[in-house]
Write a structure and sequence with these properties.
This protein is an all-alpha fold and 129 residues long. It has one domain. Helices cover 78% and strands 0% of the residues. It is globular and about 45 Å long.
């Protein structure tokens, strides 16, 4: 259910009556989340980064309803640590991270604010079913 809710926070139904500006904003947030996921996958392939962070960063899992929310939340919560590791390991990746966050930080914060009120309840349902 949360995957559906979280998805439709940014991916609209076919016959949506929302304004063009709202539709454009939803598309931008969806694309930013997809870009973050791709960046996390790239980081996951670098053993040194995972070792320095002490863990690999999670990406969404289709069977875990709140996994997209948790991916964005965990990345945002660990942003300073991630940037510190990237600055030590790869200037190119550090620059890519900085560019992504400069363009998308506000969208990620808005996404978290929208989904956060229901995330805990959906996680409880996820455990039950």
């Amino acid at each position: 259910m949360l995957s559906t809710v979280a998805k439709h926070v940014t991916q609209l139904y076919k016959n949506s009556t929302l304004s063009g500006d709202v539709k454009r904003c939803c598309k931008e947030v969806r694309e930013a989340i997809q870009e973050l996921q791709s960046f996390i996958v790239k980081l996951g392939r670098i053993r040194v980064v995972n070792e320095a962070l002490g863990t690999s960063l999670a990406t969404p899992v289709i069977t875990r309803w709140s996994s997209t929310y948790k991916m964005v939340l965990n990345y945002m919560s660990s942003e300073e640590q991630i940037l510190g590791v990237l600055n030590e390991q790869s200037v190119e990746l550090a620059n890519e991270h900085t560019d992504l966050m400069n363009r998308c930080r506000g969208m990620f914060k808005a996404y978290l604010q929208i989904v956060e009120p229901i995330a805990d309840y959906i996680t409880l349902l996820e455990v039950r079913f």
